[in-house]
Amino acid sequence: MYDALSALIATRAGFGALYLSGASIAYTRYGVPDIGLLGMTEVADTLTAICDRVAAPVIVDGDTGFGNALNVTRTVRAFERAGAQAIQLEDQAMPKRCGHLAGKSLVPAAEMAGKVKAAVDARGREDFLIVARTDAIAVEGYGPALDRAELYLEAGADVLFVEAPRDRAEMDGIVARFGGRVPLLANMVEGGKTRCSTPPRWRRSATPWRSSPAARCGRCRGCWRSTTAACGSMAAPARSSTA
What we know:
Elements: H1 4-12, E1 18-20, H2 22-30, H3 40-53, E2 58-61, H4 69-82, E3 86-90, H5 109-122, E4 129-134, H6 142-154, E5 159-162, H7 168-178, E6 185-187, H8 199-204, E7 209-211, H9 214-218, H10 221-232
Parallel strand pairs: 1-2, 2-3, 3-4, 4-5, 6-7
Helix pairs in contact: 1-3, 1-10, 3-4, 4-5, 5-6
């Protein structure tokens, strides 16, 4: 989702957790592509509005952390303070791009591991989760991408996200190496590198977290059925102590 209304619609449709995408903010707020134009405060402002409106836990896209390890520390503290339950950080170099676009570049693996460690040290609650993403498949290849993910896990990541596996065999390989050790996240994008699959398939693959772009939520029948009810009831729900 991308704002408080889309978050409210998603919760009314029955979703138990939400994902705030940097790409969706860029698309809907500014009408620009996902090429690293957003700043940390713009994401934090959107996150604050969402968490003030809904009680569901929110995973927020932290891009590259908006700089080096010091910037990651500031970003984690700001997003946790705004109400997020988890932050996703990626190993692209700035300016970053959508994970399913060509032309990406990466920071060294050791630098990204340092960012993960900084994020772990910066969080104020143990249940605030650090999602480490690698975009290395498209840049360095499949094997190096798994090695990067291993390094980020060792650095303290709570969830791993190997972006844009190109076929089922690559996804199965990710699960085989990490599935029994840490939660995994997969990103299904229409027209992207990873083929969209049905929930039963990725549940069987032990990939419990799945994100999709805002366009997919816009076609969800449950979301559309909830629009009128969501707009008609503007009393804010009570925030849970763990949201």
